[in-house]
Amino acid sequence: MKKNGKKVTIVISLFLIIIVFICYYIFNIYETIIETEPKNLFADSRSVVNISINAVNALGFKVPFRKIFGSFEITEGKDLVDIVKEDDKNGSLSLRAKNRTGKVVIYVKSKYSFLPSLVEINIYPNTA
């Protein structure tokens, strides 16, 4: 009878260890990464860049079932782009280039980052 009690205790202990591992290493946010796709734009009024804030867990993967609130502030080159879509609740921004070249600077602030991050996007002339 005592052997069955020890087996149950071991199984419950292993189950609790696995639950704690999952909570702390998979569902906790350890870092935020700002992704820019593509890195540069062309001055053709059709080029679109997507900027997104992604949460990363301790294992280096995207955190499942978590959304990152983020705010975006264009500090330089505001007249070079149009905002296509801004979604603060999901931490994403889409910009379309106008017909002018230059550099756009965006400050990205996230709930889970200590300091705002700086994103620079160059707009190159559309040459063939």
Describe the structure.
By secondary structure, the protein is α+β, with helices and mostly antiparallel strands. It has one domain: Immunoglobulins (Immunoglobulin-like, Sandwich), CATH 2.60.40.10. It contains one helix and eight strands; from the N terminus they run αββββββββ. The protein has one helix spanning 2-25; strands spanning 31-37, 41-42, 48-56, 70-76, 81-87, 92-97, 102-110, 117-124. A four-stranded antiparallel β-sheet has the order 1-3-6-5, with no helix packed on it. Strand 7 and strand 8 (117-124) form a beta hairpin. The longest helix has 24 residues, at 2-25. The chain is rod-shaped, with a radius of gyration of 22 Å. The mean pLDDT is 87.
Main β sheet profile: 4 strands, antiparallel
Q: Total domains, how many?
A: 1
Structural class: alpha+beta
Rg estimate, integer Å: 22 Å
Question: What helical percentage do the residues reach?
Answer: 10-25%
User: At the third CATH level, what is the topology name?
Assistant: Immunoglobulin-like
Spans where pLDDT lies below 50 across 5 or more residues: none
> Which band does the percent of strand residues land in?
35-45%
Report the mean per-residue pLDDT as an integer. 87
- CATH architecture label name: Sandwich
What is the highest CATH level, the class? Mainly Beta
